[in-house]
Amino acid sequence: MPVLTITGDFDPFLHVSMRQGEKIYCESNAMVMMEAALDLKGKMTGGIGAALMRRFANGESLFQQHIEAVRGDGDCLLAPTLPGALQILDVGQRQYMLSDGCFVAATSGVELKVRTQSVGNALFAQSGGFFITETNGVGQVAVSGFGGVHELDVEPGRDVIIDNAHVVAWDSGLRYEISVTTGGSSGFLSNLVNSQTSGEGMVLRFSGKGKILICSRNSASLQSWLMRQPAQ
Fold it and tell me: Which domains are present in the chain?
């Protein structure tokens, strides 16, 4: 299986080392460098229907980059679109749900499947709308987070509440629900007003047992801040 490692401290690269015949796939434009023994092709993985579903689910490009070691062993360097940290997840006994734009690359034994969410989560979440991406198979998947990435462990009886825009990936066995506030049940309208005045927006409440990856920065907040800046 290809060997995925993270190299560099600030805005690191994903370093992939492959033996002849091995292959990976990654998000469009992720490839930064590759050795001449490797081939790169753009493919619509799973056909037009699956590609469109992934596009709706997490903003992936219709065409992914497929890199294969054709003429011998070789290495390549990949990088995510947004600046920030990378994390490599082992997939097999544990599967993960991925938030919008967090997918970077995966070994060929991992499949990204799209499943529907509940209506409540779909209407308010930024994690895919009515559709969300889930890993399947065995191998490794690399994800990125805007800013730093931190790992949290959720235990039964100790629910965790996370701002929606800071969630990168989570254990598919966890239960989650969207909320407009971290407070009590004072009614939807009151909670919505509180959410806006507190500046928190939507939050996700996770329960059960499993792992969550969160990032330190909010890309939507950065975009909003940049749009408010006066033209020079």
Answer: 3-228 (3.60.160.10)
